[in-house]
Description:
alpha/beta; Rossmann fold; 2 domains; six-stranded mixed β-sheet; four-stranded antiparallel β-sheet; globular
Amino acid sequence: MALLAVQGLRKSFGEREVVAGVDLEINAGECFGLLGPNGAGKTTTLRLCLGLTHPNAGTINMIGEPVPARAREARTKVGVVPQMDNLDPDFTVRENLAVYGRYFGMSMGAIETRIPELLEYAGLSARADARIQTLSGGMKRRLTISRALVNDPDLLFLDEPTTGLDPQARHLIWERLRQLMQRGKTLLLTTHFMDEAERLCSRIAIMDNGKIIARGTPRELIARHIEPQVVEVYGDGAQAWADAFGRNASQRCEKTGETVFCYAHDADEIVHSLAMRDDVRYLHRPANLEDVFLKLTGRELRD
C-alpha cells in the first residue's frame, strides 16, 4: 500500500520551474531515498508533499488524505526531521519532547507515557534533564529524530539526517533508523551520502533539475548505469598514464582534480599496468551508488 503517492507534481518560483512533473510512490514499510545535487528540487518536493508549499499542478495523497486540501490531517501521522536541528535551547531534553507532543494535541498523560521510550531510543535516558547546549551534535540529531516520533507516525520524512556528524554518530543514527524499519515505519530519506542511501534504502529516485532521472533499487541502478569495476588513479603521473594507457583499456575514463576514474568490465589489465609504475597510486573497487550519481548528475560543483 502506498503511504505517499505523487503524480505530475510541478512547482515554479517566478520563471524557474523547481519541480517539473515528479511522480513518486512510497510503500508502507520501506525506506525510499530521494537523491540529487544541491538545487535539484528535493527539499521543495518534501515541502509540497507535506502541504507546506502549494503546487502549481499535480496530485498528492499522503496517509490516505489529499494534500494540500487536508494536509493538516495527514500530518498528524507524519514525523519530520529537518536538515538543521531546531530544538528549543531554553528547554531540557525532556521538555523538548513534551512541548512537541502538545503541537499534535496529545494529552500530557499520553506524552509522559511516550517520553521514556523516546529517551531510550535516542540513548538519552541519562540526559533527560540536560540543556540542549550541553549535548553533542550526535545527541542533538538523535533527539531530533526521537522528537519526530512523539506522535507515533506511520511516515517519517528525514531531510539529510546525518549531515555534519562524525562517522561514529552516523553509524549510530543508521542503527536507529534500521530499528524504525524493523518496527514497520516508512521512511522518506534525502541525503548527500551515497553510502547511507545504499545501506538504508530499498528503493531510490535520483532527481536533477526538478525531474526524476533514474529510479530503482541501489543494485538495479548500479547494474543499469555503470560498469562493474572502477579504478581510481592518483598522483603526479595519473594523467600521463591515462593518456598513454587508460583510455584504451577501459570503457570510460574521467579526470576530476588529481584523480582519474576508470570504469571497466574487466580491470585486470588496468591494474597490471598501474602496478608497474611508481609515480601513481590506485584503488581498485566495485562500482557503487556514488559512481551512478556522478555519472547521471555530473561532477561539477553545485551551490
